[in-house]
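Quick illustration, no need to memorize.
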Amino acid sequence: MPEILPSLLASDFARLADQIAQAEAGGATVLHYDVMDGHFVPNISMGPPVLASIRKVTRSFLDVHLMVTAPDLYLSAFADAGANSLIVHQETCPHLDRTLGAIKKLGLKAGVALNPATPISTLSEVLDVVDLVLVMSVNPGFGGQAFIPRTLAKTRALQAIRAERGLGFLLEMDGGLGAANVADCAAAGCDWMVCGTSVFGAGVSGNPDPAGAVRELSRLARAV
């Protein structure tokens, strides 16, 4: 069943615990946590200490997306902080198989992300070992960007490969998702859809009803 993953990057950090509780009240069971280093992407966000604080206030699955140049340096720190999955970028991992293996040895789900311009052929040798494949539907680095429609072709192609090879990885999509396109994403094979501003609104101003937003987005995604 398709899941809506509230992206904590879009939340009001001053009310983070409350906003997590509101999203969970709407049915969210997986929370998406973006890590940016100001090098691989032009922004800096949250690190292990914030994740550890979040772990104290939620039992939800914490899906950690490492948009960083050298992810191998931080795997253990995020595992210790309470991550349930770690997603690395194909573009930053010259030894991708080894990195995915290291994540699994930490007892976490191992995922790999692709930027919009990166072809899915770059993952052909690891699709049988990954737990998650994240298709970026915007160029990573900032929230609130417009969805890139052509990225749906990637999820459809990955869905076909998954079915043909009998693989079990989850398909995730991130970037510009909301009421206008979550149904299209679900129809294209997405299992997890990351929604930030469409759940929490514009950061500090906040969405007055994150719970209602999660419920409505879930309804739209599951109506396919």
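The two ends are 10 Å apart (CA to CA).
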